[in-house]
Amino acid sequence: MRTNKVIYLLIAVVFSAVQLHAADTVIVRKDARMDILSAKQIEANKKGAQLTSTGLYKGYRIQVISTGSRDRATDTKAMLGTNFPAQKTYIMYQSPNFKVRIGNFIRREDAETFKKDLAKLFPEGLYIVEDTIEITATEEEEPIILQ
Fold it and tell me: Is residue 143 part of a domain?
């Protein structure tokens, strides 16, 4: 629905900017803001394609441990929270193990980079796993609403 509004707006702007100077010459003057609007719409469409039915996005997390001990899992989560406060940590229970995961990465490359930092504390047993992740939009990424 919103995409249709964007398309109609683009068509209206293009037709209003067309000036015919000769029988075979067309000059189109485009507002530079249209490029910015198009780029934002493309980015919004890419993110929309990654959206799952639960409202979360497809992405990656790093699994730090998988253990049968709840205490070990909570201790690991606390240590991760202390050492990496900018990253969110999660404990999942998948019978019979507790799995501790960290991060919300859209791109696998970002997860690989963070995994290298994490390897200083956990030299082995780190795995990048596909998961549904939480994304919070920044002000620049807020949806464009045309009226």
Answer: no
Q: H-type helices in the chain, by residue range?
A: 2-17, 33-50, 70-83, 108-118
Question: What is the CB neighbour count within 10 angstroms for residue 137?
Answer: 10
The pLDDT score that the predictor gives to residue 51 is 66
Four-CA torsion 75, 80, 82, 84, nearest 10 degrees: 180
For residue 8, give its domain range. Answer: 2-50
The structural domain count of the chain equals 2
Block mean pLDDT (10 aa), the chain, length 147: 71 60 70 86 74 75 93 94 93 93 92 92 89 68 48
**Which tokens in the block code for residue 141?**
């990424």
Query: Which residues, in sequence order, are CB contacts of 57 under 8 Å at separation 6+?
Result: 47, 50, 51, 106, 132, 133, 134, 135
Q: Is residue 145 part of a domain?
A: no
What's 83's domain CATH number? 3.30.70.1070
pTM of the model: 0.59
